[in-house]
Write a structure and sequence with these properties.
The complex is a heterodimer of chains A (196) and B (221). Chain A has 196 residues and is α/β, with parallel strands linked by helices. Chain A has a domain at 75-193: Nucleotidyltransferase, domain 5, CATH 3.30.420. Chain A is built from 4 helices and 6 strands, in the order H-E-E-E-E-H-E-H-E-H. In chain A, strands 4-3-2-5-6 form a 5-stranded mixed β-sheet, covered by helices on one side. In chain A, strand 2 and strand 3 form a beta hairpin. The longest helix of chain A is centred in the N-terminal third of the chain and has 17 residues, at 31-47. The model of chain A is unreliable at 7-11 (pLDDT under 50). Chain B has a domain at 55-199. Chain B is an alpha/beta fold and 221 residues long. The chains are: A alpha/beta (196), B alpha/beta (221). Chains A and B meet through helix 1, strand 1 and helix 3 of A and helix 1, strand 1, strand 2, strand 5 and helix 7 of B. Strand 1 (54-59) of chain A pairs antiparallel with strand 2 of chain B, so a sheet runs across the interface.
Chain lengths: 196, 221
Amino acid sequence: MAEMDTSSGGGHKKGPGVKKSKKMSTRVDLTPMVDLGFLLITFFIFTTTMAKPKTMEINMPNTKQIEEKDQTKIKESTAMTILLSQDHRIYYYEGLATDPTQPPELKVTYFREKDGIRDAIISKIEKVKALQASGQLDAKDKAAFLIKPDTNSSYKDLVDILDEMTINDARVFAIIDITPVDQEFIALTEKASGVQ
Amino acid sequence: MPKVKLPRKSTNIDMTAMCDVAFLLLSFFMLATKFKPDEPVQVSTPSSVSDIPLPDTSIMLITIDQAGRTFFAIDNKNKRKELIENMNEYKNLGLTDDEMNSFAIGSSLGVPLRQLKSYLASTPDDQRAFDAAAPGIPLDTAITEANELAHWIRSARVVNGKLRICIKADSKTPYPEIQRIVKTLGGLDIFKFNLITALEGVPEGSALARIQLEEANAKSK
């Protein structure tokens, strides 16, 4: 009769011809399994999009429905015009430059931590607040920023300046097409400062 | 001196722990993964502090690459099918059912209408090869017959009125290209849209950081 050998090597001698069954190790080599695991991990890492893209909501002025009487006129003293130019350069001046006899003085800056456009925006907001405190402006007059991207500016400049508006909590701003007058201002300033 | 005999250790390491780690990570990535949609062009979006997540459904995606080529897409296979059927009828493109299905399952489109039939008739591999040199959808600053993007947007909004318009442009895209899109949207009375950006941190000490802190405080109370 065939009998299972359940004894585990206890020296119990069997008769001749009955082979002692070999004790098999239950250990499996897991190396290929690990290989497979890491291979799949790399696959998923490469195909995944971890960071979900975010969006920035933007409202453009409705140029069709606004009538002349509904338009809120921005006061010269609250306005600041920001011109986005080549190589992430920013030119800005205070006011709207409506008086052709007095061309504004353009200041140049960049998107940077120190002395960048952010400081200019903050100082403008402070200035408007100071004017409100002294009674020269109404409480509802807010600092207004007119953003005029030049044709040689990039999309990044636009997003960055909109970002600066959010960062500094500037509520009144508008993206406007650049005018030939403003382009001339840039050209003159560049010529004066010797920028190529 | 007698030699010190070092006991020879087995080089076999127990792989079980390693295996556990590997599969733990694997299951994490499998659950966290969302496959990258097959986009014809690679754009690297600029980053902003805005943290509004992009909605999953009902989005119209207008992609503009560095060279200013425009690609157009809407989500949802059924809506895409409806859109191409409308466009086919409206513009007399003479597309077959197979070609329209090819559009429905495809991704962003950057082909002028006159090339659309031959583009959709080709195999997916050929389409991908064509996308690399695709001219993009023709557009203009005004709503004209040649402004094909305007036709696409108008038809897509008929198919799905809840579409949210998202513009995804590369950091280096020149501004006039963006302006053309904005003008086109403005011409269609669309003044509210989204710009797709990556997330970046709010600078410390700024007005926004202060507002966010106040909001967080108000919530915790």
